[in-house]
Amino acid sequence: MELNDLVSRTWEENILFNVLLELTYQCNLDCFFCYNDRSLQGKPLGLKRYQELLHELAGMGVLNLILSGGEPLAHPDFWNIGALARELGFVIRIKSNGHALRPDVARRLKDEVAPFIIDISLHGASAAVHDRQTRVPGSFKRLMQNLEGLREQGLRVKLNATLTSWNEHQLDAMHELADNLGLLLQVDPQVTPRDDGDRTPQTIRASDAGLQRLEELLRKRNPQAGPSCDGMESSTGDAKHCGTGSSSLAIDPYGNVYPCVALRRSLGNLHEQSVCDIWHGNPVLEELRGAMREVARQVRVLEKNGNPVRFCPGQAHNLSGNPAQIYPAATQTLSLSIKANQNSRHPG
Amino acid sequence: MAQSLSIPDHIRWRKVAGEAVIVDQSNAELIVLNTTGCRVWELLAQGLSVADIASCLHQEFEVEQDQAVADVEQCLVSLQELGVVTITGQT
How many structural domains does chain B have? Predict the structure, then answer.
C-alpha cells in the first residue's frame, strides 16, 4: 500500500491518525505574521494530562504526532512529553523555529525524542529579510549555525516558509539556499489571519507577482507537487477534500480540541472530556466530514487541465464561518496556476 | 542458540483498520502488512518466538502447524530484508 492509499483510507474510514499538539504559545521569536492567538485564556494542560493523552492516542491508533506551538521547545515539559511520545512509538514531527536548536540541544533531541523530522521556519535568504519577519536580530545567523548542527546529528530537517510581501523577492534565493543546505523547502503561499480573527498578518500577504512566481517555481521544480496541508501529504483520493474532521485533530495549550490546526471550531476540551469521547459521535465532526465531500465536488468543478485549487477549509471557516465556502484567494491561486502552466508551455 | 527476534529502535508502527502500518524512520519507508502479517507483527512485538507465533496462527487462522511455521519464517525473512526486523541466532 502506498502512502497516498493509506491517507485516503484514514480519510474515508474516519480513522484518527494525526494529532497536532500546540504545547505552548510562548516563543523565543516574535514573527510579525504569527497566527497564534496569544490573548487566549485557559488552564494549561499539565504534564500528567499530557501523559494520559499520549497513552490514549496511542491506544486509539494515532501514529503521527506533531509537536508545535508557539515554540514547542519552550514548553517546560517538552522533554518529558517528547520522551514519552518516543516510548509510545509515535512518528514525531517537531515544528520549530530552530532558534534554540543549538548542537547540544540537537544532540539531546536525537537521543531522547528521536523525531522523524523537524520542520523549521525560514523567513528569507538573508539576515535582513529573515530577521525583519522574526523581529529578532541575529535569528538568521543563529538559524544557519543551528542547521549545520542538526545536519551533523543526522536529524531529518525540512524548511517551511510563508510567502509574504517582505520575502517574495528572495523566493528564488530561498530555494537556492535550501538546495545548498541539502534541504527541502516548502512554501505556503497564503498568510492567514491570527486565530482570533485579527487580519494584521495579512497586511504583508504576497503580491500577485510573488504568488505567480511561486507557482512557476513549483511547476519547474516538482511538476507532480500538489497542495500540501499541514501534517498531511496530498492524497490521490477524491472523495473528501482533506482529512479535517476525518483523520486529524489539533489541541491547543489549554486543552481545546479542533478538527485541525487551521480550523478553529472547538470540538471539546480535554479538561472535561477524553479525546476518545470527543472523537466518537461528535456532531461537528460528522458535519465536517460531509462538508469535505462537498468541497471535493466544488474543487473538482473548478480544477481544469490539472491546475490545483489551493483551498483550506480552515481558512474558509475563519473567513466566512463556512468551511465549504470557496474564498477568493483559493480561486486566485487557480488562475495563477493556469497562467504558470501556460508560461511553462510557452516560455518567453 | 535460540533465535532472537527484535524490532529495531528506529521502527514505529500502529495497527490501523486491522493492518500493521510500519514506518522505518531511518529511510522514511512505509510498509503496510495485511491482516495475517499484522498478526505476526503484533506477536513479534510482544516478544514471542517463531514457534509461539506459529502456534498462535495455527489456532487463530486454522492452518496446519507446519504450514504456520513456514509462513511465519517466510514473513520474517521478508521483514528482515526490509530492515524492520532483526533476527539473530540460529533455529
Answer: 1
